[in-house]
Design brief:
The chain is α+β, with helices and mostly antiparallel strands. The protein has 11 helices and 22 strands. Residues 10-18 and 33-41 have low confidence and may be disordered. The structure holds fe (iii) ion and calcium ion.
């Protein structure tokens, strides 16, 4: 293993953070599991002290011919090494056309290596388009639960319907993952997680559940935190039911970070990037992501395109890793010159260019941005007559880039743009205009913001000052602060978003109900109540 203290000394002697050195670190790290792994993997029959599949199984990243299968071996999930010795383990996998695993269509073996926390990322290809499949793993004497997954329709097919859910902000301590339980029962084709899958804070007493360990910093800390979350049976059930498409927000690493800049000033950037490398690696290890997402040190490319036939094209964004520092006060500021500066970027130049060409290449009826923070420019005044303040951690902190992007959607006539958002622990439906401060301008896109799974506890059905906020922001069509997720039904003619509410996240087994549904008709921008 590369010695981190040597690396840090070398980085410091260069007089600053050298990205090249971190890249070198990443290259060493990522090459390790491949070197000699196959030769080392023993054919002996392993016997585990406890079930090595304690974190369940998952799948993700469906294409028309394949899908990514995931598991991580961890007989003792809260141990730093997952309860395994630092040796490679051979893991067998099989994919079947039936839920009883009788009609096996593919099988193979792969290596779980200690360098990647004995995680397994199997890329299966050569499957039929638009079909359900079942899969499981075997390691030593243990067999995993069976997961269900599916492929996407062919690129030129127009499926009649896509049913998916999106979720965000699942805080272990602040509630039970009952929303995931309902998602698992919803017969979804796909699930999107838009960030804050874990929270980084230390364990606190007197909450619903307690985080294991201190505020997370080291690779072992991040691994243990992800493992603790993955022990949740409802989260496991939701992962086992359909493929997931994940992207991170801030809490997978640290609150409100911007690229290599921490929320709090004064942190050593070398320390911060080392911590980011830990966070990103544990994220990769814990998620059903393709090996091309494997991080290199503190760099991990997460933005990508996922088509679902001609029905919808999803552009999955990363608005954390490349952004410039939030202007003004993260929490709120007027849209002043600093907020409107064209130097601010939330996507970074490379991702912004990629996004534009990806949108132009898309053949989808619906063009979806699956991303983190709110794009709607919502201004809030504490008192009537006071100037409105906008969140600088969200797209309004990057208002020039945001207006350019919505302008691009309009000018290039990108068909039916829809933005999916997490982050703020509340539900919103927003009509998006190039500049939301000009309500007479045409609506270009619709943003559906989903509330948290648990973050913030139960929230409330009543929002103080709601009427004044709605009156000041005509683009906002709906706002609510309860918990849950958003379920979407997409057809060539219309898009329906159901705001699913779990009233009580502090006791297990709460029911879910649809509080409100909104519809967008294809070719007619703007959401209407269903
Ligand atoms: Fe959150
Ligand atoms: Ca967040």
């Amino acid at each position: 293993m590369l010695d981190m203290s040597e690396l840090r000394a070398a980085v410091r002697s260069e007089g600053g953070v050298s990205r090249r050195l971190f890249l070198a670190y990443g290259a060493v790290l990522s090459s390790l599991p491949l070197v000699g792994a196959r030769a080392e993997a023993s054919a002996r029959r392993l016997v585990f002290a406890a079930d090595p599949f304690s974190l369940g199984v998952a799948s993700g990243e469906p294409t028309a011919t394949g899908v990514l299968l995931w598991t991580r071996l961890a007989p003792k999930p809260l141990d730093p090494d997952g309860g395994l010795s630092p040796e490679t383990v051979e893991v067998a996998w099989e994919v079947a056309a039936d839920d009883g695993m009788r009609k096996i269509v593919q099988r193979g073996t792969t290596i779980a290596s200690p360098q990647l926390a004995h995680s397994v990322h199997v890329e299966v290809d050569g499957l039929n388009p638009d079909r359900w499949y079942w899969f499981r793993f075997r390691a030593g004497d243990a067999t995993s639960p069976i997961g269900r997954t599916r492929t996407a329709p062919k690129a030129d097919a127009t499926p009649e319907q896509l049913r998916f859910a999106f979720a965000s902000c699942s805080h272990w301590e602040q509630g039970y993952f009952t929303a995931y339980e309902h998602m698992a029962n919803d017969e979804l084709d796909l699930t999107f997680h838009l960030g804050d899958y874990i929270y980084e804070y230390e364990g606190r007493d007197n909450l619903v559940r307690k985080h294991a360990g201190p505020k997370i910093r080291t690779l072992a800390d991040y691994r243990i935190r992800h493992a603790q979350y993955k022990t949740d049976p409802h989260l496991q059930a939701a992962h086992a039911r359909c493929p997931w498409v994940v992207t991170w927000d801030d809490h997978e690493f640290e609150n409100n970070y911007a690229n290599d800049i921490a929320e709090k000033a004064g942190l050593d950037p070398v320390d911060f990037l080392e911590q980011r490398a830990n966070a990103y690696q544990a994220y990769y290890e814990s998620m059903p992501l393709r090996p091309r997402s494997l991080p290199h040190g503190p760099h991990m490319k997460l933005y990508r395109t996922l088509p679902f036939g001609r029905l919808a094209t999803f552009q999955v964004l990363d608005t954390r890793q490349y952004r410039t520092d939030q202007p003004n006060d993260d929490r709120g500021s007027e849209l002043n010159d600093a907020a409107l500066s064209p130097k601010n970027t939330i996507l970074g130049a490379e991702q912004a260019n990629w996004l534009k060409s990806a949108l132009l290449r898309s053949t989808g009826t619906w063009n979806v941005l699956a991303q983190q923070v709110m794009m709607g420019m919502v201004g809030r005044s504490r008192q009537a007559g006071e100037p409105a303040k906008y969140s600088m951690d969200q797209w309004p902190g990057y208002a020039a880039e945001r207006m350019k992007l919505v302008g691009f959607l309009a000018e290039r006539r990108v068909p039916n743009p829809v933005v999916l958002t997490g982050d703020i622990h509340s539900n919103w439906v927003n009509d998006l205009r190039v500049d939301d401060r000009k309500p007479d301008a045409p609506v270009v896109a619709t943003e559906f913001v989903g509330t948290s799974i648990t973050s913030g506890g139960n929230g409330s059905a009543k929002v103080d000052g709601l009427d004044a906020m709605l009156a000041a922001n005509p683009g906002v069509r709906f706002h609510n602060r309860q918990r849950g997720y958003v379920r979407c039904t997409v057809t060539p003619q219309s898009w329906t978003s159901d705001y699913r509410i779990v009233e009580d996240v502090k006791s297990p087994g709460a029911t879910a109900q649809t509080l409100k549904s909104f519809v967008v008709e294809a070719g007619k921008p703007g959401a209407q109540p269903a």
